[in-house]
Amino acid sequence: MRWALFLGSLALALVIGVWALQVPAPRDASASPTEFSARRAMADVRQIGARPHPVGSADHARVQDYLFQRMASLGLNPVLQAGALSPEAIERLTRWGGDPEAAGNVAVDIVGILPGRDPGAAAVVLMAHYDSTWGSPGAADDGAGVAAVLEAVRAIKARGPADRTLVILFTDAEELNLDGARLFFSENPLRDRIGAVVNLEARGGGGRAMMFETGRGNAETIALFTKAARKADGGATSNALSIFVYENMPNGTDFTIPKNRGIGGVNFAFIGRPSQYHSPSATPENLDQGALQHLGSQALEATDAHVRADALPVAGANVVYGDVLGRIFIVHSTGLGWTLLAVTAALLAFAAWGARHATGVTAADVGRGLLSGLWLLAMGIVVTHGVRALAGPSVARAESAEVYYTLLRRLPWMEAGTGLAVVAVALAALAGRAALGPRLLAGVVIAAVMAVMVMNGFDAVVLGAGGVAIALSTWSQTAPKTPWGGWLGLIALILLLGCVAQTFAPEAALIFVWPGLVAALAAAACALIGARLQSARSLIPAALATVLGGAWIVTLAHPVFLGVGMDIPGVLALMALLVLLFARPLAPEHGRATLAAGAAACLILACGLSLTARYVEPMPAPVAGGPT
Asked: How many of the other CB atoms lie within 10 Å of CB of 588?
């Protein structure tokens, strides 16, 4: 019974999570004129992405002329705004093999206006960039964004006049140095009228479009966005964690320019099918039309909400928020996190009291459960980084743009390999370190650390995690002796991590606060129903938490890995810990040999997948230059 409940709950969580990650079906050209249709937008994608169109090329001029005419046909009265390319842009274009002088050393934005009924009201910008990288047709980056803007504008017009003016901005030279956005927001007379920006981007060729960035102080922006998101096809994907992570990354898009001027708004992108990023394969035929539908539908609803708002969002406090399976949003203040942590602590105490009364579980065993969670994290970091290293060097050691893009093409293999690696560690944690033996575990750690050091150079985090993993592997007293000890210890660890995150990064603390609360609630319910955890009925709360909480973790894990997992695969170890936080009481107490064998098989397969990536996507010969 326990095996069936354990495996069944995890399988259902995976199925629901994968379902929630799917894109909506593209709407046909016959769709209502007030709705977004990817089929209609594809007509523009095919024109824009027919061939590469970097700054200064003949196809760049062709795309510019095409967009000018399309904007004129929509009644937007377009104008061209030219400005000098920055030295950084000229250097990059020259490195690509382009001729800056042939381009006149200028970037040329295309600006159109959809007038509002109130000319004094703050205007809204809807923007995307129309240049591509050298050698890539750019059907996704950013042909999809440009086409989505045109289709969204058509639908907004069909919905009737709005009070606010909508500025349509197609920026140039984004791929070079964000020069087009700098030009508009520094020199265009409209710049001081702008109250909000909706930007569309892509880093790949498909997948769900995520709202991954806002202006600073986003409480009012999130309130407007979540209201609009309910109307979007396929719902919306966004959370405060992604915004916190992106804020602390060196990346930038056109949205960076107005954001740094204090202008609010939202930034959308899809990042699936990473092999198409800046690639010759980024053609209209290869573009995921469901991703285009999701991107464009969200852009339409977000922009329409802004131009019809009585007042645009203003900067204030940041909020904690996140979608649940893309359909429901939870939003609360950063301060409420402390209240939720206090509730979690109270539920944890109640569950511990019930478990002690029924089974005699001790505080020492809960402590061992906490250390077991630390072992899983440390071991997961080391093993995932080791498996990832087998697939090639880190981005930091990429000697050229070609190497960087090869690593992106290897990303699906890396995700499968590191995903199996964390499954292996989770199974090993359930089997118990004694079932595998400290020598074997120490050997795995040493091999993984050596792989990282050889492929990626010295890594203090991996080395430190390796030391912790070996210490906890050899200290036999750290393994919990009861299911309650293991479960309560994991909840206590997440509660502790939640307090740390709430102190230093409250916007990102939801990754610990929400799962910890759900797990503590399930533990308290189990303690009430049947604290001995022996009947199927007593395990129902844990099974429900595993299905729903596990599905939510799956929807987080995939975009997180696509975003940062290429160089920080250890984030999946945290995701595995969070899934185990729900599923720990469902794990069978017998069959440890089966779990250990499963762990070994998953690890071997994980290594095989990472090594296969080297042959499926061979590395090009080194060339001068870095990733662009």
From this structure: 17
pTM: 0.93
User: For residue 203, how many other CB atoms are within 10 A of its CB?
Assistant: 22
Q: How many CB atoms lie within 10 A of CB 247?
A: 15
Tell how far CA 549 is from the center of its chain.
17
Q: Can you read off the two tokens belonging to residue 131?
A: 């240049």
Per-residue tokens: 52: 């590469």
Closest to 124 in 3D by CA, of 195, 220, 229: 195
Asked, as a colleague might, if the bond just before 65 is cis with ω within 30 of 0, I would say no
What residues are paired with 171 via a beta bridge?
Answer: 129
Q: Which tokens go with 398?
A: 């990429």
Nearest to 61 by CA among 111, 102, 112: 102
Question: Which residue type occupies 47?
Answer: Q
User: What is the DSSP secondary structure assignment for residue 287, as one 8-state letter?
Assistant: S
In the sheet that holds 79-84, the strands lie side by side as 79-84, 106-114, 166-171, 123-129, 194-202, 264-272, 206-214
- Give the list of residues 6+ apart from residue 590 with CB closer than 8 angstroms, or none: none
**In the Cβ-directed half-sphere of 290, how many Cα atoms lie within 13 Å?**
12
What backbone torsions phi and psi does residue 52 show, to the nearest 5 degrees?
-55, 145
| Spatial CA neighbour of 263 closest among 201, 297, 306 | 306
Report the C-alpha gap between 283 and 469 in whole angstroms.
Answer: 46
Which letter does DSSP use for residue 377 in this model? H
Which residues are paired to 281 by β-bridges? none
Q: Render pLDDT for 451-508 as a digit per residue (tens, 0 to 9).
A: 999 988 999 999 999 999 999 998 866 788 899 999 999 999 999 999 999 999 999 9
Mean pLDDT over 421-425 rounds to: 95
- The one-letter amino acid code at 359 reads T
Rounded distance, CA 517 to CA 539, Å? 17
Give CA angle at 623 (620, 626), nearest 5°.
Answer: 105
Is residue 6 predicted with pLDDT exceeding 80?
Answer: yes
Task: Assign 399 a pLDDT band (cuts: 50, 70, 90).
Answer: low
Q: How many residues does the chain have?
A: 628
d(CA 180, CA 329): 34
Close Cβ partners of 215 (under 8 Å, ≥ 6 residues apart): 196, 197, 221, 258, 259, 262, 263, 264, 265, 313, 315
371 near 393, Cβ under 8 Å?
Answer: no
Residue type, 158: A
372 φ, ψ to 5°?
Answer: -65, -40
Query: What is the rounded CA–CA span in Å between residue 394 and residue 112?
Result: 42
- Residue pair 304/159 in contact (Cβ under 8 Å)? The answer is yes
Burial of 562 (0-12, 13-18, 19+ CB in 10 A): buried
Q: How far apart are CA 68 and CA 106, in angstroms?
A: 17
Rounded Cα–Cα distance for residues 441 and 447 (Å) = 10
How is residue 415 written in tokens? 């995700």
Q: What is the dihedral sign for C-alpha 134, 140, 141, 146?
A: positive
Other Cβ atoms within 10 Å of 349 Cβ, number: 13
Count of CA atoms in the C-beta half-sphere (13 A) of 122: 16
Distance between CA 579 and CA 9 in Å, rounded?
11
Taking the CA of residue 509 as centre, how many other CA atoms within 13 Å lie in the half-sphere pointing to its CB? 28
Distance CA 417, CA 384 (A): 8
Q: Is the peptide bond before 142 cis (omega within 30 degrees of 0)?
A: yes
Q: How far is CA 566 from CA 31, 389, 396, 407, in A?
A: 39, 10, 11, 8
Bridge partner residues of 107 (DSSP): 83
